[in-house]
Amino acid sequence: MPPGKLQYVRRFEVLPKEAVVEGCYHDNIHGNLTKKLLAYDTIEKMAGALRWLEVVCKKALVAINASRNIHFYDWIAETASALGDGRLEIFRWEMGTCVPGSLLGTNGVISLKQNSLRRLILVTASPCYIGEGETFHNGKPNQVIDLSAFRMLEQIDWTAPNAVFIPTLSLAIKQNAGHLRRLHLHFDNWQSFETNIRETKFLADLPENEAIEAAFAHRFFNVPSPKQYPTRHLFPELRDLFLSDVPLSGELANAIDFKSLRSLRIYLCPGWDQFLLRSLSELKEHEKLKTLEIGDNWTEPATVQSILNKAIRTVKRLETLFLNHLAPVGTLKMWENITYYQKDLRHFVHQQYKYDEEEATKAYEERRDLDLGDLSLPSKELIHQQFSGLNLESIGLSCEPEYFVSNFYITRTWMYPCTDVHFAA
User: Fold this and answer.
1) pTM
2) Planar angle of CA 375, 379, 382, nearest 5 degrees
3) pLDDT tens digits, one per residue of 24-34
4) What average pLDDT does the structure give for the chain?
5) Which of 252, 303, 422, 425 is buried most deeply by CB count within 10 Å?
6) Strand bridging mode 60-61 / 135-137
């Protein structure tokens, strides 16, 4: 790499265009991966097939030359080593494999030379087997992924982290909590991930037969005791929080400062109900929240109905509301609350799905406002009354299209602003 060619690069991205990488570099695919990549005659053909490396410098794509006799991951590390020290602001790895230690390890080139990084986006491989502990690079200890060097991060996105990396991810969150503006975490299926967590040393002091969700939430997010910090203090600058399959707790909500939060999205998170309930008073006070999305597939419908109605009444001035949960949940009160409290709402999606056919059929026969055909709609007589006060631009409903169309003459007055309608029948 010619000296100085990449000195001013601010953004380094490794993105797959095709599924040519079938596993991690330490998963016995070294030879296979190298053969696939070296089958291309020129770097131009390789880049055309992969689009996995984008280095943007002042809005221009920098052409990178590489020798065909070096390994794919070594090539990336060599390219990264040519970047100017402390220049990089964004590192993005979306290969769906573990990041090589030569990049983000204890002695990795990004870790050592780019510790002023602002945005870190990772899509890795949760199921991949990695022995806990350290590997060695040139005779020196080298943790596979080590985020301890980064103390200026404003964004952390990590999809499918391996359980082995939870301690370093927790440390990164702790070190950057004071200035973090965006936190997106997507664990792979908590039920299976929990087993992997128990096999690590992260919660080694917890008895095997004890539920780990609350303990994990406290330790992972570094929640102190109320005696240490009696007031909210975590994430004072956080604008965007997305969590999927990440355990939560009411105590965690009590520790977070929600004054800057604009977007809260929670999907399939154990303990989400207590977390949301404990957050409402703070969210109401600041009135900054514009997007609220809740996805759940195990909480009792009656509990979901109570919590969601309380949230709709409490957190006003929402612009986007997405609700996805088990049926049956009555919608009449929900629509009344939306119409009365959410005058700014522009995008609304409500999807509830059946889990007990016998119970749902019984509800349909009794016409209890939660039948199979119109799970997200109130009764026909009240549609106009409930919808007329809204000014929606898009809507998504758990509703058979036939039912909606049959009532179009009622809905057309409030449907006029809508540009997008979606049905999940």
Assistant:
1) 0.81
2) 130
3) 544 433 333 43
4) 76
5) 252
6) unpaired
* Tokens standing for residue 88: 């990089």
Q: What is the pLDDT of residues 319-361, one digit of tens each?
A: 999 999 888 887 888 888 888 888 899 999 988 876 555 554 5
The first and second tokens of residue 344, run together, are: 């700014």
